[in-house]
């Protein structure tokens, strides 16, 4: 493949498990883009920055309690080693800002992201103070490590990079891009288990198709995500006044 003009979007990863990368991102859409040089992965083993005989990266929590905590000195050295790497420093942690499509877009628009993957009970708090970064969470649940979270963020970013998705526009109408969940999809066969594809979709009337899809996206969002729906209604109040029947 031809070299891309600008340097490829680069995911720098600090982890205790480098063998987990690229993992699933080595296949399919992301894998092909990785091979083509549209993006790059730069994986570092945190353990290489441990200097004692046993290459210790963790220790018992001050104050007692279960589990182990990742040492500030070891991790700080690992972070400093990639200080000049492209993009913001991102800590994956359940206490971070929830990942959103807006944040993904911001991260994808930059030169890359430097991910710090936690393990055990998490990181020594002094890291966040001395090596400031954006703390990002995948949601209100606990993973066993930051690696799957980093892979997930990367996947969401990579598919937005120019040329990765088949049609560049195909991201625009997706869930969350306009504050709504996506409308339902159908494809062949025309009839399945006694159900037909909605007639409007095969009518050839692009304007009617567009209106049907918007109405469906609104219905699904209203039914499933009152939080998104409230924000959407507030934002589109003026425009939606002409269609008051969709409000309930
Ligand atoms: N004791 C911590 C959980 C540690 S889980 C707590 O109660 O908050 C171990 C590591 O997995 C974390 O350091 C973090 O890097 C990662 N992790 C776990 N859940 C995550 C989530 N929801 N989002 C992002 N990273 C997460």
Automatic annotation (TrEMBL):
<feature type="binding site">
    <location>
        <position position="118"/>
    </location>
    <ligand>
        <name>S-adenosyl-L-methionine</name>
    </ligand>
</feature>
<keyword id="KW-0949">S-adenosyl-L-methionine</keyword>
<dbReference type="InterPro" id="IPR016009">
    <property type="entry name" value="tRNA_MeTrfase_TRMD/TRM10"/>
</dbReference>
<dbReference type="InterPro" id="IPR029026">
    <property type="entry name" value="tRNA_m1G_MTases_N"/>
</dbReference>
<comment type="function">
    <text>Specifically methylates guanosine-37 in various tRNAs.</text>
</comment>
<feature type="domain" description="tRNA methyltransferase TRMD/TRM10-type">
    <location>
        <begin position="12"/>
        <end position="230"/>
    </location>
</feature>
<comment type="similarity">
    <text>Belongs to the RNA methyltransferase TrmD family.</text>
</comment>
<keyword id="KW-0489">Methyltransferase</keyword>
<dbReference type="InterPro" id="IPR002649">
    <property type="entry name" value="tRNA_m1G_MeTrfase_TrmD"/>
</dbReference>
<dbReference type="GO" id="GO:0005829">
    <property type="term" value="C:cytosol"/>
</dbReference>
<dbReference type="InterPro" id="IPR029028">
    <property type="entry name" value="Alpha/beta_knot_MTases"/>
</dbReference>
<comment type="subunit">
    <text>Homodimer.</text>
</comment>
<dbReference type="GO" id="GO:0002939">
    <property type="term" value="P:tRNA N1-guanine methylation"/>
</dbReference>
<keyword id="KW-0808">Transferase</keyword>
<feature type="binding site">
    <location>
        <begin position="138"/>
        <end position="143"/>
    </location>
    <ligand>
        <name>S-adenosyl-L-methionine</name>
    </ligand>
</feature>
<protein>
    <recommendedName>
        <fullName>tRNA (guanine-N(1)-)-methyltransferase</fullName>
        <ecNumber>2.1.1.228</ecNumber>
    </recommendedName>
</protein>
<dbReference type="InterPro" id="IPR023148">
    <property type="entry name" value="tRNA_m1G_MeTrfase_C_sf"/>
</dbReference>
<dbReference type="Pfam" id="PF01746">
    <property type="entry name" value="tRNA_m1G_MT"/>
</dbReference>
<keyword id="KW-0963">Cytoplasm</keyword>
<keyword id="KW-0819">tRNA processing</keyword>
<dbReference type="GO" id="GO:0052906">
    <property type="term" value="F:tRNA (guanine(37)-N1)-methyltransferase activity"/>
</dbReference>
């Amino acid at each position: 493949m031809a070299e891309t003009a600008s340097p490829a979007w680069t995911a720098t990863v600090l982890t205790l498990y480098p063998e987990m990368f690229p993992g699933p991102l080595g296949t399919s859409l992301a894998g092909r883009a990785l091979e083509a040089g549209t993006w790059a992965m730069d994986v570092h083993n945190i353990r290489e920055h441990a200097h004692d005989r046993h290459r210790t990266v963790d220790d018992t929590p001050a104050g007692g309690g279960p589990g182990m905590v990742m040492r500030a000195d070891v991790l700080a050295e690992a972070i400093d080693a990639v200080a000049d790497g492209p993009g913001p420093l991102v800590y994956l942690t359940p206490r971070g800002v929830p990942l959103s499509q807006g944040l993904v877009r911001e991260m994808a628009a930059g030169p890359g992201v430097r991910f710090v993957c936690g393990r055990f009970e998490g990181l020594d708090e002094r890291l966040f103070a001395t090596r400031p970064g954006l703390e990002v969470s995948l949601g209100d649940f606990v993973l066993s490590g930051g690696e799957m979270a980093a892979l997930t963020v990367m996947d969401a970013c990579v598919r937005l990079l120019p040329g990765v998705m088949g049609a560049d526009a195909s991201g625009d109408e997706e869930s969350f891009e306009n504050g709504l969940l996506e409308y339902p999809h159908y494809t062949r066969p025309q009839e399945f288990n006694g159900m037909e594809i909605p007639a409007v979709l095969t009518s050839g009337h692009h304007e009617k198709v567009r209106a049907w899809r918007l109405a469906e996206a609104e219905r699904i969002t209203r039914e499933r995500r009152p939080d998104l729906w409230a924000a959407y209604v507030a934002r589109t109040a003026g425009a939606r006044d002409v269609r008051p029947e969709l409000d309930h």
